[in-house]
Each structure stands twice: as structure tokens, then as C-alpha cells.
Specification:
The complex is a heterotrimer of chains A (318), B (366) and C (276). With 366 residues, chain B is α+β, with helices and mostly antiparallel strands. Helices cover 27% and strands 28% of the residues of chain B. Chain B folds into 2 domains: 247 residues, P-loop containing nucleotide triphosphate hydrolases (Rossmann fold), CATH 3.40.50.300; 93 residues, Nucleic acid-binding proteins (OB fold (Dihydrolipoamide Acetyltransferase, E2P)), CATH 2.40.50. Chain B has 10 helices and 18 strands. The longest helix of chain B has 18 residues. In chain C, helix 4 crosses helix 10, helix 7 packs antiparallel against helix 10 and helix 10 runs antiparallel to helix 13. Chain C is mainly α and 276 residues long. The chains are: A mainly alpha (318), B alpha+beta (366), C mainly alpha (276). At the A-C interface, helix 1, helix 3, helix 4, helix 5 and helix 6 of A face helix 1, helix 4, helix 5, helix 6 and helix 7 of C.
Chain lengths: 318, 366, 276
């Protein structure tokens, strides 16, 4: 009769010494495996992005010009002080902020509403969803071309329509008051479907039972949205908003192709500013300085986002 | 000759008490050993360490006297049955079953783009592979389901498929991780006996993990009871039932739970160092007042062949609920008064402080 | 018989409104492509497309090297997709299944690359490619694009791999599959929709590529369609309807690709849940 083959105290503690130590499965090569998997991606980013980034930052401390990319004297923070004194620079900062804020606001707003409208099944829903996603599928240059034509002063469809309504012509791309509006409109159009698809995916993962419970409790559509849908999609919406913000700060093609930064520099965002400074004014050093500002702006936004996240999770933990 | 040998095996997760603490276990070749214990006792962890899916933080594991502690699962040639079956959803049942035979033949160059499906097809067409797959399908009655994907199968069928995948390699050790938990009760009972029959037929070593002590008692050659990473007792089911090594084992094995009372409560001399354990089948209730200790019936469960009575003793200030099992309907209802007698012939004595069983048994009490 | 509910009407109205806004510019593109010059600049463009003018399209297209442009765009897009996914799937697996030193930093690095303005690294990258001989080279564009879009792929694929039950991988281990075998034979097939979603995003990134191509490519023969099309802006000898035709030609493959993959994309974006 076998009763015990090892120490079996019921409530006793445990001995701390270990015999033999940790035995790794697969030997030394097993330890390397995760590194082998991740090294290609990290090395790639370091070589293609990080190092050029550092070089770009270094460039911002010189007075390099385009005709002579490798020759440039060290000028310290001259470029930066010059920028701070330059009204155009601050204008581009402001333009970037305004552009980003409104683009994200409308893209996330319309995208979420679209997702909400698509959430309930109906006949032809897939087709409708596909068509709503067209703006995102359309290549940027094509988008720029067609909006450019639609915004055309005398022959664009928008102005023909407004003329027919007796409102006269609007200088969509020629009037400094409308430039940013037009560019924002085109951007929102191109970008909202991504928000829609991502938020829709989040909505579809909400279990049906929650809606059933809500309607049993007598909730109407708005209330069930607030109580069931919104809490579930909030994390997704926040992440998407953050990504949209960062991408908006970075966005170049659509703005540049529509207005080139004009009219009157009213659509010159930081990135457009960098491009023009580098390739039109041929001031590589100053362009790099502006670029560094753009990067800092993104970092600040991200930092604020994560700080808010942390505060939120702390609050929810109580 | 022990087939599996665990020596001072340890596993730590985090800084609290270790998940497995210095455990020794010898599993005989060809036996059906059941590892049983409450949730979190470390039985699944232990099984995965035997399989080679988890690393040991201390100690060694030997299979047939070979130290396998450093070997990955793919090198250990064991079969593992998962609680969720873990069939490959994107492959047919046939492909699932053939996978172990094909996977081990693939080398790194087979994974180059495009070659893998060709290589798999070539290996799967091997007559030896086909023979084994046919054998496994036939043995588990899966012939009609071979082409289907796992999601088209019922729970019981998926279980058989997982089993077929396990036996197709003809391993020497079978590890089963609570395979019956996801089945309904009737199916569970049926497959229980099928598994026992299978083990007998194959003659291989089965290590079976469960939290259900009924499964343990009905299936095992030997039962190993774990609690919080420590082995409490190992022995045949009868052994563990009749001679539990400590309070934990006594309480864990047997349904309804053993009655643990202090001798004073049942009117015995009490030196305040012992507790008595009496199985419900050794406790009798009757309406006859003179027959024994006075008490009150609290609940009645009529299972047809058995009648379970939950009661409290008047002599117990804490009014602990105790149980009695009778094969006769005693015609007692909740709230009734009853007289309780304890047959102490098979009672077990425990040390009150350590919980360990005291030997010898009961003579001094009588 | 469904009772008429204002919410349904509101819903339909909203859908129609957004749909109209989404589709109109595309419709207008087609309309413009099929309009005659005279309408465009004098009498006013008709609201309905002149389908009969479809025959003029091939004639126009033969006048511009659209075939070459599209080919270059395809090379860039496909190259970006293949390279990005190859790298991303391994990184995603490592981030999903392993704990290792530096994992947190790797994750942060992957994320912060999204914030980098392309313009900032344009010049240093130009210098780097210059020394490597990658200027004026489609491969160079693939390399540049991959750097920006690969982290997005990692993000999507990691979420998908997180959703594959670990027990299935354990079963494969017990069955004798090598680590690489588990990845390619078991995990990868189970995250198909997410791979499709990531592929579409990588493809679009490559198809849309403009800034680097603008600066790095000298040879007109190597122009991707994005650059080719942008060359129409500001010059006057190509009529707008022709430009729209070219734009449609540029848009068509992307849109078709999207429509083919779109169901997979939606399920892929939910980072699929798999039941074993």
C-alpha cells in the first residue's frame, strides 16, 4: 500500500532551494528564436528610418543647400531661431493644427455615423458598404485630380451648381478663405471610410444579447446606442482618432497637389512647408528644422493621448 | 520499471508560492494514472511539463530512464489530448489525423514558398501514412467524417478525432488534459469507459488529468492527488478512499464528502488532538430516538438507488452539515428529528494540527 | 408588414446622404472622362455621362504611356506588399507569442515610425540611396515604402495571431512540427483574413506612392502612374477629360483589388477569432 512518495504537509510551506535549476527546452537556439523573428523588422526600421531621422535632425543644425547636399556648415540652432521669428512658420503650425483638428473631427464623426448606419443588416448592405469605401480605395493622385476639377473656379461642378443657385462663384482653391476648407473636405472624403470600416468591425463584435437586454429594459435607439454601442466602441474610436491625427500631421500629397500650399500660404501645413523649403527654396537645413518640429508635434500628441489613457484607466479602476 | 519519473520538479509563476513545489512522482509503465485535484492545484501544469510544452524551473523528468527535461515536445513522442481538442480548424479530419505523421518529416527547405503543399501531399500519399490514418479512423469510428472540417463535427466526434490524431503515431505515453470536461454528462460516462478500454487494449501509459474525483476513482489504476503544487497522496482508488493520507485527501475523494468530527461531538473520549473521519455510508439515521445521537435532518436527496441525507448534530455547537448515505428510503424529511449512529470500524483518525492521518487507526477510540 | 418607423426613414436618409457624397466624385470622374471638350469649357458639363464616347478612351490612352506607368505602379505596390508582409508576419508572431528582453522597446519603435514625416527623412534617404545606387530605381521605392507601412502590418497581424488559441500551437508542437512549421502550416492559414487586410493596406500604400517617387526617380520610363498623372496638373495641352480617363485607369486596379478583398478586410480588421 502506497501512501506517500513525497513530502506532503497539508499546510506546510515550501522549500526555496531548487535542485537542478531551470532546464531550458530546446537549448540555446530556443532562446534566440524570438530575436531572430523580430530583428529583421527592427533592423529595417533602424536603417531606413531611425538613422535617416537622426541625420535629418543633424541636417537641421546646418545651413545645407540643395545644390550641395553634403557641404554645409554647422550653425547650431540658427535655423530654429530663424523659424521662431518667421510668421510663415507659425502660420504653418496653426494651419496644421486647424487642418488636423477638423479633418479628424469630421472623418471620425462621419465614419462612426456611417458605421452606425451600416450596423443593422439590410438588403444590399455589402454593396452599399463597398460603395461607401470607394473614397479610400481611390488613389490619392486621382482624388486630387477630380477634386481639383470639381473645385475649378469657372467650370467645376460645385461652382456651376452654386451659380445656378445664384450664390456666385467660390474660389475653392484660389480664395485664401476657402483654401483650407477645400483641402479639408477632400481629405475627409478620402479618409472617412477607413474609420467607418474599423469602427464597424468593432460594432459587429458586440454581442446581440446586450441589445436585447436593453430593449427589454425599454431603451429606444438613442439610449441603446449610449448604453451598449458607445462604451464598446470607445476604445477603438480613440485609437483610430489617434492614428488619424498622426497621419493628418503627416499628410502631404492631397494638399500639395490641390493647392501647392497656397493660396497665400493658407494651406501650407508643416509638411508642405518642409517640402517647399527643401525643394523650392532649396534650404535643406531649414527644411529639416521644420520637419523636426512636425515630429515633435506628433510626439506631443501621442504623449498627451497616452497620458489621458493612463488617467482614464486609473479612474476606471476605482 | 517506471516509465515516467519526476524528480523534485518545480515550476514558478511570479513571486508567490510556486505552482509546482519539489514534486516526486513515479509512473509505472502501462498504468492508467489519474492526476486529480481542485482547480489551480497545478495538475495541468504538471502534465504540460511531462509533455515538453512547459519548461521546468527545477528538477528533472525521466522517460524510460532517459532525461528528457531539456527536450521540446516535438522530440518527446508523446500524445496530448487537450480539453478543447485543439483540432486544426482549417484542415479536414483526415488531414488533422495525418498531420503528426507528415509534420515530423518536413525539413526547413520544405517551407520555401510553394513547396510546402507539394511536400505535404507527397508525404501524405505515402502508403504507410495512409495505412495508419485508416487504422486510426477505423479504430475510432470516424470513417464517415474524414473529409469534414472540425467545425462540422459534434463535441463527441471532435473528441474521437483528437484521439485518433493522438494514436496515429503510436506513442508510448498518452497525456490527457481534462478531455471530458466539455461533454454532456451521458457522453462523459460513455467515453470514460471507452478510454479505459482503449488503454487496456493499447497497453500504453496514460496520464489523465481531471478535477472530477469520480472520473479519477472509476478510471485509474492509481490516483495521484495534488493540492497547490504538492503531491498529497498516490495510491489505488480503494487505498486512497479507505486510507486517506490527510484531511485534504479525505475530503476531496468520495461523494458526498466525508464527515469530519471531533470525538467529543459524537461522545467519544477526546484529547483535543484528533479528528475523526467517517464516510457517509458508515453513518446511519433512524427515527428511533434511542438508537443514537440526536440531530436534525437538513436536506434530502433522493437519487433512486441512493438516498443522501444532510443533517446536523445537536451536540455540535457549530451545526456543521454532515452527510449520510442509505440504500433504503428512511422516509425522513428536512426538518425532521433523527437519531444518528456512527460506525467507527472504518473510521480514520487525523491529527488536528497537521491534518495528517494518525496510525494506527481506530482501536484506541473503540 | 413592418410598421413605418421614423428611425428607419432617418437611417435610410443618412445612408443615402453619405453614399451620395462618397460616390459623387467618382461618378463625376467618369462623367468628365466621357464629356466633350466643348461642354467642359463652354456650355457646361452634362450631369449624365455620354456613354457613347467610351470608344474614344482607348484612343486617348494610347497617346500616353499609361501601360508603362501602371506597370511601374504595380511593381512598387506588389513589391511593397510582399516585402512588408514577409517582415511583418515574423515580427507580429514574436510580439504575440514571446516574452523577451526589448519587446516593449520594439513595440514602441514600431509605433513611433508612424509619426515620422516622410519629408524629414527625404534628404538623408536620398543620400543613402545615392551611395547604394538605389536612386532612380523601383526597388529603392519599395524599400522606402516598406519602412512606413510594415509597422501597420505588424499591428494588424499581431492582433490576429493573438486571436489564435494557443492550444492549437501546442498541439502542433506535440505533433512534431518545427517552430517554423507551426507558423506557416497552422498559424498563417488561420489568420488569412487579416493577412488579406494587411495586404490591401500595403498594396494601397505602394500604389499611392508619390513623394519619394517624385524625388528619387529621374527616368520618365520609371514613372509610376501617380507621378505620371501628376504631370498633367498645371499643363494645358491635355484636356481634362483625358486626364480623367488616365485617372480612372490608375484608379481601376486599386478599386477592383479592394472590391475583391473587401469582405476579407472587414473580418480581418476584427483580428479574427478562431474556434478550435
Amino acid at each position: 500500500m502506497q501512501t506517500l512518495t513525497s513530502m506532503t504537509p497539508v499546510r506546510a510551506g515550501y522549500t526555496k532551494q531548487s535542485v537542478g535549476g531551470r532546464t531550458r527546452i530546446g537549448g540555446f537556439t530556443a532562446l534566440l528564436w524570438p530575436y531572430l523573428l523580430i530583428v529583421p523588422s527592427i533592423a529595417y526600421l533602424v536603417v531606413m528610418l531611425l538613422i535617416p531621422l537622426v541625420q535629418g535632425a543633424a541636417l537641421s543644425l546646418t545651413d545645407t543647400r540643395l545644390i550641395n547636399p553634403s557641404g554645409g556648415r554647422f550653425v547650431g540652432l540658427d535655423n530654429y531661431t530663424r523659424l521662431i521669428e518667421q510668421p510663415l512658420f507659425w502660420q504653418s503650425v496653426g494651419t496644421t493644427l486647424v487642418y488636423t483638428a477638423f479633418t479628424v473631427l469630421f472623418a471620425v464623426g462621419i465614419g462612426t455615423i456611417a458605421a452606425l448606419l451600416l450596423n443593422r443588416p439590410f438588403r444590399g448592405r455589402t454593396a452599399v458598404r463597398s460603395m461607401m469605401a470607394l473614397p479610400w480605395a481611390l488613389p490619392t493622385v486621382a482624388t486630387a485630380l477630380v477634386f481639383s476639377w470639381m473645385f475649378n473656379l469657372s467650370n467645376g461642378v460645385l461652382n456651376r451648381g452654386s451659380q445656378a443657385l445664384g450664390l456666385g462663384q467660390i474660389g475653392w482653391l484660389t480664395d485664401p478663405r476657402w483654401g483650407l476648407v477645400s483641402v479639408t473636405m477632400a481629405s475627409v472624403w478620402a479618409v472617412f471610410p477607413l474609420v467607418m470600416l474599423v469602427v464597424l468591425a468593432a460594432m459587429q463584435s458586440i454581442p446581440e444579447e446586450l441589445y436585447e437586454a436593453a430593449s427589454l429594459d425599454g431603451a429606444n435607439a438613442w439610449q441603446s446606442f449610449r448604453a451598449v454601442t458607445w462604451p464598446h466602441i470607445t476604445p477603438t474610436v480613440r485609437v483610430v482618432a489617434l492614428l488619424m491625427t498622426i497621419w493628418s500631421i503627416r499628410r502631404f500629397e492631397i494638399i500639395f497637389l490641390l493647392t501647392g500650399g497656397g493660396p497665400n500660404n493658407s494651406t501650407t501645413t508643416l509638411v508642405v512647408n518642409v517640402y517647399r523649403e527643401a525643394f523650392q527654396d532649396e534650404q535643406l537645413g531649414r527644411a529639416a528644422a521644420i520637419g523636426v518640429f512636425g515630429l515633435l508635434l506628433s510626439l506631443v500628441v501621442t504623449f498627451v493621448y497616452f497620458a489621458a489613457e493612463r488617467r482614464r484607466t486609473k479612474r476606471e479602476a476605482h | 520499471m517506471p516509465s515516467i519519473s519526476l524528480r523534485n520538479v518545480r515550476k514558478n509563476y511570479g513571486n508567490a508560492a510556486p505552482t509546482i513545489a519539489g514534486l516526486d512522482l513515479e509512473i509505472e509503465d502501462g498504468e492508467f494514472l489519474v492526476l486529480v485535484g481542485p482547480s489551480g492545484c497545478g495538475k495541468s501544469t504538471l502534465l504540460r511539463m511531462i509533455a515538453g510544452l512547459l519548461e521546468l524551473d527545477g528538477g528533472r523528468i525521466f522517460v524510460d530512464n532517459k532525461d528528457v527535461s531539456g527536450l521540446d515536445a516535438r522530440q518527446r513522442r508523446v500524445a496530448f489530448m487537450f480539453q478543447t481538442y485543439a483540432l486544426y480548424p482549417h484542415m479536414s479530419i483526415e488531414q488533422n489525423i495525418a498531420f503528426p505523421l507528415v509534420a515530423e518529416k518536413l525539413r526547413w527547405y520544405h517551407y520555401l514558398p510553394g513547396i510546402s503543399s507539394l511536400a505535404i501531399r507527397r508525404f501524405a500519399a505515402d502508403p504507410e501514412v495512409a495505412r495508419r490514418v485508416d487504422g486510426a479512423c477505423g479504430a475510432l469510428d470516424l470513417d464517415g467524417l474524414r473529409r469534414q472540417k472540425p467545425k462540422a463535427l459534434s463535441g463527441g466526434q471532435r473528441q474521437r478525432a483528437a484521439l485518433a490524431r493522438a494514436i496515429v503515431r503510436d506513442p508510448s505515453i498518452f497525456l490527457l488534459d481534462e478531455p471530458l470536461s466539455n461533454l454532456d454528462a451521458k457522453l462523459r460516462v460513455q467515453i470514460r469507459s471507452e478510454l479505459v478500454a482503449l488503454q487496456k487494449r493499447l497497453g500504453k501509459t496514460f496520464v489523465y488529468v481531471t478535477h472530477d474525483q469520480v472520473e479519477a476513482m472509476t478510471m485509474a489504476h492509481r490516483v495521484a492527488i495534488l493540492d497547490r503544487g504538492m503531491l498529497q497522496q498516490i495510491g489505488t482508488p480503494q487505498d486512497v478512499y479507505d486510507h486517506p493520507a490527510n484531511l485534504f485527501v479525505a475530503r476531496f475523494i468520495g461523494s458526498p464528502e466525508i464527515n469530519i468530527v471531533s470525538p467529543a461531538t459524537i461522545g467519544r473520549p477526546d484529547d483535543r488532538t484528533t479528528l475523526l473521519g467517517v464516510r457517509p455510508s458508515h453513518v446511519n439515521l433512524s427515527r428511533d430516538a434511542a438508537a443514537g445521537l440526536p440531530g436534525r435532518v437538513v436536506a434530502v436527496e433522493d437519487l433512486g438507488a441512493e438516498h443522501v441525507y444532510a443533517f446536523t448534530l445537536d451536540s455540535d455547537p457549530a451545526r456543521t452539515t454532515l452527510h449520510s448515505v442509505s440504500h433504503v428510503d428512511l422516509d425522513l424529511l428536512p426538518g425532521d428529528r433523527a437519531s444518528i449512529t456512527f460506525d467507527l470500524a472504518a473510521a480514520v483518525t487525523f491529527d488536528r494540527k497537521s491534518g495528517l492521518r494518525k496510525q494506527p487507526a481506530v482501536e484506541e477510540i473503540q | 408588414m413592418r410598421t413605418f418607423r421614423p428611425s428607419t426613414a432617418l437611417r435610410s436618409l443618412g445612408l443615402i446622404a453619405i453614399l451620395a457624397v462618397a460616390v459623387f466624385p467618382v461618378y463625376w470622374m467618369i462623367n468628365t472622362a466621357l464629356s466633350a471638350d466643348s461642354e467642359l469649357f463652354n456650355t457646361g458639363q452634362d450631369l449624365y455621362p455620354h456613354i457613347e464616347r467610351v470608344g474614344e478612351i482607348p484612343e486617348f490612352l494610347s497617346g500616353i504611356p499609361i501601360g508603362r506607368w501602371l506597370w511601374n505602379s504595380a511593381v512598387i505596390a506588389l513589391g511593397t506588399t510582399v516585402l512588408s508582409l514577409l517582415i511583418a508576419v515574423h515580427a507580429a508572431y514574436a510580439l504575440s507569442r514571446y516574452r523577451f528582453f526589448g519587446k516593449g522597446i520594439a513595440g514602441v519603435l514600431l509605433f513611433t515610425t508612424q509619426m515620422m514625416p516622410q519629408a524629414l527623412i527625404l534628404v538623408p534617404l536620398f543620400a543613402l540611396f545615392s551611395t547604394l545606387g538605389l536612386l532612380n530605381n523601383l526597388g529603392g521605392l519599395v524599400l522606402a515604402n516598406t519602412a512606413f507601412v510594415m509597422p501597420v502590418g505588424v499591428f494588424i497581424l499581431k492582433g490576429a495571431i493573438d486571436g489564435v488559441p494557443f492550444e492549437i500551437e501546442e498541439a502542433a508542437r506535440v505533433d512534431g512540427a518545427s517552430r517554423f512549421g507551426i507558423l506557416s502550416l497552422v498559424v498563417l492559414p488561420l489568420i488569412g483574413p487579416s493577412v488579406a487586410a494587411a495586404a490591401v493596406i500595403c498594396f494601397f500604400d505602394g500604389w499611392n506612392e508619390f513623394m519619394f517617387a517624385n524625388v528619387f526617380i529621374r527616368d520618365q520610363a520609371l514613372w509610376p502612374a501617380s507621378i505620371g498623372l501628376s504631370s498633367f496638373i498645371g499643363q494645358f495641352y491635355t484636356p481634362i477629360n483625358g486626364v480623367m480617363i488616365a485617372a480612372l485607369a490608375f484608379a481601376l486596379p486599386a478599386v477592383v483589388f479592394f472590391l475583391l478583398m473587401q469582405r476579407r478586410i472587414v473580418s480581418g480588421l476584427t483580428a479574427g477569432s478562431v474556434k478550435g
